Amino acid sequence: MEERPLRVVLVDDHEMVLEGLKTLLARFTRRVRVVGQSADADEAERVVAAFDPDIVVSDVRLRGRASGLDLCRRLVEAEPSRKVVLLSAYDDEQYLYQALRAGAVGYLLKWMGGEELVRHVERAAAGEVVVDPTMAGRAAASAARLQAGEFWPGAALGLTQRESEVLSLLVAGLSNRAIAGRLVLGGETVKSHVASIYRKLEVNDRAAAVAAALREGIYR
Is the pLDDT of residue 153 over 90? Predict the structure, then answer.
């Protein structure tokens, strides 16, 4: 008896990415079938509840107050057996660690090919934890360094290395525009990093972020 294809829900806040993923996976209809999609975390929860997929594939970063990490955490809390694989354009080990802490069964990079993506999704659905091969070795080395206390400021609070750099400049009193110039980043990229810092430090504004950084001894 032929096995049915895995039922997948896709979550990404960029329509072009969603359509691209659907087109990519359409080549493998005997193995995977997209049964639902969503552009934000709140809607994604409703879609997952309605379709009860075998696996959810979500972008790490979503527009709005809830990220893919938040969505993953909420889905797993509601249904501990729920399997979520997070996709990202960022090969940053700290995002990987956060994904696993949120209950994800996989962290994959967006530029992998269709066959590789489907293979990882199948493994994740079967109960394995899947990590992009290019990150696996670096993540192991970084974990050892983190255990030894040899890492960037803020790593223990889940800040990525870039977010730690941005936070240090916030503490120094630089504006977003000045931070963008100092780190050679776009203004929207800096805004995204600042929003992520607020979420991870559980604060709502710049002054509170600076206070939290000083209180936690991240920067002095």
Answer: no
